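Readers outside the structure-tokenisation community will struggle with the description of the input data as it stands. For illustration, here is how one protein appears when written out as sequence plus structure tokens:
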Amino acid sequence: MSVELRRLMVGSQAIEYVITRRERKTLEIAVEPDASVSVAAPIDASIDAIEIRLRRRAAWIMRQQRYFLQFLPRTPERLFISGETHLYLGRQYRLKVVPHVQEGVKLTRGFIVVQTHRPNSTEVTRELVDAWYRERANVKFAERTEHNLGRFPDPEAFRPRGLIVRQIKQRWGSMSPTGRLLLNRRLIEAPVDAIDYVITHELCHIAEPNHGAAFYELLDRVLPDWQHRKQRLERIMA
């Protein structure tokens, strides 16, 4: 399975979409609750064929996006009760709290399932969900850091000396003068392409500590569509 992030102009409107290629015969277009557009396509489907279909469905896509956007941003305060929605990697999942002798959290069929011997305690549910998010953030951020190092001509020159995941306010990440990458735990709620933007942005600071012209020249070279990723991050995580 391969995944591609692309952008299609329809008149003056831009449709950003993600193609996931699989062993399948048909092409499917979906607008997700975060207003993102996903395309499930056969492995051998051409970009031209995909974009012809997208243009035909453009009015429907934009109508669906407008519908979902009216509900954004999501309610920020979480009660940690069954039925409410939580973001994970840019998608909405419903929380399902079930009584169980063993405590744990798992992702399954559109649900974040919380198993707990105290199902009526929202504080216990909160602690379990927070711990699950932290665990997933540590795994996913390390994986995406390795992936994004490949964008640079000399990956080892941009490898951070450490990765720290922490709940922080007002920023998504930072790079310390000693080369330690700090990422906001909440970033695990964002789509992968937005996570990649934050990580790549911070990796660029290893060579260019300040936000000067040289920094943006480097960022433009290694991640040409970074502005669109940034806008999507800000919209979804508002």
Summary: Residues 85-134 form one domain. The first strand starts at residue 2 and ends at 10. The chain has six helices and eleven strands.
